[in-house]
Amino acid sequence: MTEKLTYELPEGFNAEYSDGVLKVEGNGEETEKQIQHSLVEVDIDGETVTFTALRDKKNIISVAKTYRSHLQNMAEGLENAHVYKLKGVYAHFPMTIKKEGDEVVVENFMGERFPRRAEIMEGVDVQVDGDEVTVKGPNKDKVSQTAARIEQLSRKGNRDPRTFQDGIYITEVTRSE
Hints:
The chain is 20% helix and 44% strand. With 177 residues, it is of the alpha+beta class. The protein has a four-stranded antiparallel β-sheet. The longest helix is centred in the middle third of the chain and has 22 residues, at 58-79. The radius of gyration is 20 Å and the shape is elongated.
């Protein structure tokens, strides 16, 4: 007994699966993700993508459902980009957040002399406006990972977070219109 899960791509979108990599094109952009499991088959028929769990075990079915969710996130990201908004907060030392090439740089965090840096992942757009940072892109994994890296720039070590609230925090997770 097998379980089949299907996902209908939006109109005008194309999907391609080869060598364990699922590619989705739409709105002039493309995103891809490695999805490969020996007990899950991926079939594409026009705008319908089918994930077939070859065993009736719940852990295999959950892998197929996860792959369908990844495909849904990819298609939604191509329709409307995933957007994470972050805000820098400080009490004592005014920190500076800026974008330099493919890195986000935080200077004077908690009075530190050396800047902290986080790499921006490929295909992700980062805009810095004063204390506010906007991370945007079609690939949800890369956008959220970049936002997490920026948030982790402001780790404070063994300090009490109730007292030392300086940092960069994710304030909003949305999709662009």
